[in-house]
C-alpha cells in the first residue's frame, strides 16, 4: 500500500523523523493535509454564562481573558510543533499544562474529532508525555513512527494503527462511547499486513455489544479544533495529534 505522508508539509515531517522513519513515511498509506482553522471562541468555556474570574489548580485567581489568551498561545505552540517538530519538549509540556488547566467546554469536541458522517476523521500522533508527581508532565517526546487514529462519530467506531510503509501495518478497530469529554473504547479486531500480502484480520473475541465505559481504556479530551487535538489517557499521560487524511 503506497501513498504519501504530509502533515501540513511532507518535507517538514520527514526532516523530523529518523532515517528509518523517513523511509517508512515515504510509503505510508496516509496523506496528511492542513485542516481549516476553527475559531477558539467556538470551543472556549461558556463565556456568556461564567463569572469574569476563574480559579486555576493553584488557587490563584485570574481573569477569563487571561486564561483564553494562555490557551490561544499554547495552541499556537502545538501547531508549530506539528508543522516542524522543532519546538522544545519543555515548551510543549508547558503548553499542554495550560490547556489541561483551562477546562474548556467540550460540547463540540466529538463532531470535530470524528466528523458527522462515516468513515470519520483521522489524526496523527505527534507528541506524548507522562505524568509525574503533583500531576506535573514529564518525559515528553515526539512520537518517532507513523501512528494514526481514526474516529467515526457517526458510527461510534475507532481505529488505532501504526504504519511502516512497504513493510506493512498493524491496526486495532472497535467501538467507542462518548460522555461529556470522555471517549471510552473496546477493540474488537486486529488487522495485520506484511509486505505485498493481503491483510490478516483476527477477532479479539469481543462479541458482547455492551457500551464501553471508564472500566475500559479511555481518553479525556482537553482540546479539539480542526487542526490539532489534545487528550489525557486512562494512565494519566497526555498526547496531542494533528489532523490528517487517509488515502487508500
Automatic annotation (TrEMBL):
Highest taxon in the source lineage: Eukaryota
Classification via PANTHER family: OS01G0363500 PROTEIN (PTHR35690)
Protein name, as recorded: PAP fibrillin
Taxonomic source organism: Kingdonia uniflora
Amino acid at each position: 500500500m503506497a501513498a504519501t505522508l504530509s502533515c501540513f508539509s511532507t518535507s517538514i515531517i520527514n526532516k523530523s523523523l529518523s532515517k528509518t522513519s523517513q523511509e517508512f513515511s515515504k510509503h505510508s498509506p496516509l496523506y496528511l493535509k492542513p485542516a481549516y482553522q476553527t475559531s477558539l471562541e467556538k470551543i472556549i468555556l461558556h463565556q456568556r454564562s461564567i463569572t469574569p474570574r476563574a480559579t486555576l489548580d493553584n488557587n490563584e485567581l485570574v481573569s477569563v481573558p487571561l486564561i483564553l489568551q494562555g490557551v490561544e498561545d499554547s495552541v499556537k505552540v502545538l501547531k508549530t510543533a506539528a508543522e516542524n517538530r522543532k519546538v522544545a519538549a519543555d515548551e510543549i509540556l508547558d503548553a499542554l499544562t495550560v490547556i489541561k488547566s483551562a477546562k474548556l467546554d467540550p460540547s463540540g469536541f466529538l463532531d470535530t474529532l470524528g466528523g458527522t458522517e462515516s468513515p470519520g476523521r483521522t489524526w496523527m500522533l505527534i507528541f506524548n508525555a507522562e505524568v509525574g508527581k503533583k500531576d506535573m508532565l514529564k518525559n515528553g517526546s515526539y512520537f518517532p513512527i507513523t501512528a494514526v487514529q481514526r474516529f467515526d462519530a457517526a458510527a461510534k467506531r475507532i481505529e488505532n494503527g501504526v504504519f511502516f510503509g512497504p513493510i506493512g501495518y498493524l491496526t486495532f478497530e472497535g467501538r467507542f462511547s462518548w460522555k461529556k469529554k470522555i471517549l471510552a473504547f473496546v477493540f474488537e479486531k486486529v488487522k495485520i499486513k506484511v509486505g505485498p500480502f493481503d491483510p490478516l484480520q483476527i477477532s479479539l473475541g469481543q462479541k458482547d455489544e455492551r457500551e464501553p465505559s471508564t472500566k475500559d481504556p479511555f481518553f479525556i479530551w482537553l482540546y479539539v479544533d480542526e487542526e490539532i487535538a489534545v487528550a489525557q489517557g486512562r494512565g494519566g499521560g497526555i498526547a496531542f495529534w494533528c489532523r490528517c487524511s487517509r488515502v487508500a
